[in-house]
Design a protein that fits this description.
The chain is 31% helix and 27% strand. With 295 residues, it is of the alpha+beta class. Helix 1 runs parallel beside helix 2.
Amino acid sequence: MDVAHPSAEATIAELAPAKINLALHVTGRRADGYHLLESLVVFTRFGDRLHISRAARDSLTIDGPFAAELHAGQDNLVARAREALRAAARHAAEPVAIRLEKNLPVASGIGGGSSDAAAALRCLNGLWRCGLDNKALAELGAILGADLPMCLAAQPLIARGIGELLEPVTTLPPIAMVLANPGVAVATPAVFSALASRDNPPLPPLPGRLDFRTLVGWLDTTRNDLEAPARLIAPAIAETLDALRACGAAVARMSGSGATCFGLFATQAAAENAAALLRRTRPDWFVAATQTLTA
């Protein structure tokens, strides 16, 4: 996701991909209250998009299907990322106009806000010629949120700790999937509060060879520990998972703390057909067929 250095008139675009927790194990809790996690994370070709150009003054505008759910003020994570990088720059960073195309549901377990901020950091680091390497960007991003380092990487990985310990996974093939959200809000703190156990077994080792069938078999031995409490809070999650299975998903699971769910399919055509069926039968849901990004 390297960014070219545009001319003064150019606008550059950067993908902010959806972050999907294929498996998420809660393995403990630190003294400061942060939960310890182990998660296999992938990113998708579908996501938000940032459009950035040089300007006479800073601005942030938001459009897209889910624009109404976000404010474009200084507390927006994209604006905070812009200012954090500007403060870290070794030279003056000129004003920029940022347009956020919000295609992902807000606060829905797929890292939309964190991915948006990560895209802003990646893009502006190139535009402003800050010269920060991946490690320095990740350290800066971690100040803004625990998910920022993995969203900056935007490739298959295993995340441990509170999300800051990242191990790239280079053997994962592209995976066809359908994302579905029933349009219910689930507060992350409430999901963690409803956890029955915070000290659960870690992820099993990944197989050395990962094709679709092997991945599905491995996922059958894993879980999302946040799914059960989230389903208690929002029963529509269970309906969403059932609908994905009824469309032929080989695996159906909730991502993050919900309420977005995903279904994995053997082919992109099968995923597209399933998404089309869901849109016809659940027109009020967010539904997207996509494919994962590889390393």
